[in-house]
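S., here's the first fold you wanted:
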Amino acid sequence: MTTNALPRPIGWARFTPRPLDYWGALVGALFLIGAYQGWHPFSIVESWGFVTGAGTVWLAAQNRISSWPVGIVNAAFFIVLFYEARLFADMGLQFYFIATCIGGWYLWLRGGERNAGLVVGRAPRMAYPVLAAAFVAAVVVIAMYLTHIGGAAPVPDAAIAAGSVIASFMLMRRWIENWLVWIAVDVLSIGVYMWKDLHLTAFLYLIFLLICVSALRTWRVELRRREEVA
């Protein structure tokens, strides 16, 4: 079967803002100003995490390479936020996100055939059992470690960490199934962050969830269209 692909990811030179991008930037700027001026109860760090996180997922859903550098900034803010909340697995996960952002940035630009950049496709069948086994093993190991160091929510935190690692790897490889994994991670994350009173972060993950559902639908339509042409 031939390789199925969406249009090439949009780089900096070809970046063309859309009306919704302007509105999102305006809302994000006002929200950050509010954090500095004390207009809402959320901390400056959590506010920056909210804005850059929403931007990262939105740009990735729109097939834009700029999602990767924005993702690096987002991970830096969440390292601080999760450390303060004692969600150590989530904190450590951000370092992995930084690494995958660097790798994804390169692969989307220079990976694939003739260094032309990776294109969107389906995960190979042999990847499913490997990723499932890796998820279970990672949850067990991480949960045991978090229990030992006094983590606030060892098992859910471990599941979020393991699921995010797998989803990030799949996104970096541009496998469409990455959105299904992200949806599951987001649902679990919302519950954990609400329990930890990180309400803004929980709301951010609700936005992530909605964007992931939309992205999955969009990528499926495009992929199906490519399959029909092939």
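And the second, which I think is the more interesting of the pair:
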Amino acid sequence: MSLPNAGRNIRALARSRRFDALLYFIFAVGVAAAPFMIATVLKLKLPSLVLYLGLPMAAFALLSARKQWQRADQADQGAQGEEDVERLLQKLPPEWITEFNHPMRRVGDIDIIVRSPRGRVWAIDVKSHRGTVRVQDGELYRKVAGQDRSFEKNFLTAVKKQAVLLRESQELRYVQPVICFSHAVCFLPEKVQGVQVVSADQLVNYLLSEG
């Protein structure tokens, strides 16, 4: 059984970012065009400096619009990852319970919570990064185009905090933190700092073997 659909919160975030990008774009056009329109309508001969005064602000607004649009694309990619994992989790037996986008104070939300018939609970953080995930000195890295890159955040610390808060808020015996990479290759048989790290195609088999 599954509770509300995956990806809905981050899809809403993507829409919000696209709306902000459009506002920046409209502002940029308005700021750049306003002096010329005023001069034309009022038949004024304004100095060139005044006519082009709005261009720096317009350029800044266009850069902000582009950045917001890129952040919206990233959010949509993250939502797609959650939706892909949701489809995979439908392979679990019907007595298993999956919950998506569970709100949690101090961490926003937990992407996925899975409960087995035996009472085991997992807090799963879905990541849509690409490449090959590996571990070095207890930290996660990914190899992209032959180069090792660190992640922009400490995913291990974040998902462990989610698991602890879920356990405390629902008075559970234990919650296993899991990071699931929806688009990356991942072969990490050992837990990393107590966190199980899997790729999407490994997730269901892992849960069934542990549940």
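Why I say that: Strands lie at 97-104, 108-115, 121-136, 139-144, 147-150, 176-186, 196-199. Residues 198 and 206 are 8 Å apart (CA to CA).

Talk tomorrow,
H.
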